[in-house]
């Protein structure tokens, strides 16, 4: 019997090479996940369920769940509704990118 080896996601990504398109999509996915994580953490801090947050924001529970999982590309109005429902102010900032050393 032969033994199979598993490749980690990082190893597979490195072996395949990161094209600019893949890098852009990876960065976008990281941003969606970070936004979702921020909303989930604040929601939990407030003791709200996904259903309660959805009701406050005019969304369904499943839409909140998808957002928190990073599965949707949010619009500014959706971000604003979620922020208000969480008692927050939405701020969008464009800043210079950090230069590599």
UniProtKB/TrEMBL annotation:
Residues 39-94 form the HTH cro/C1-type domain. Residues 1-20 are annotated as: Disordered. It comes from Streptomyces griseoruber. SUPFAM superfamilies: lambda repressor-like DNA-binding domains (SSF47413). It comes from the Bacteria. GO terms for molecular function: DNA binding. This is HTH cro/C1-type domain-containing protein. InterPro entries: Cro/C1-type_HTH, Lambda_DNA-bd_dom_sf. PROSITE patterns: HTH_CROC1.
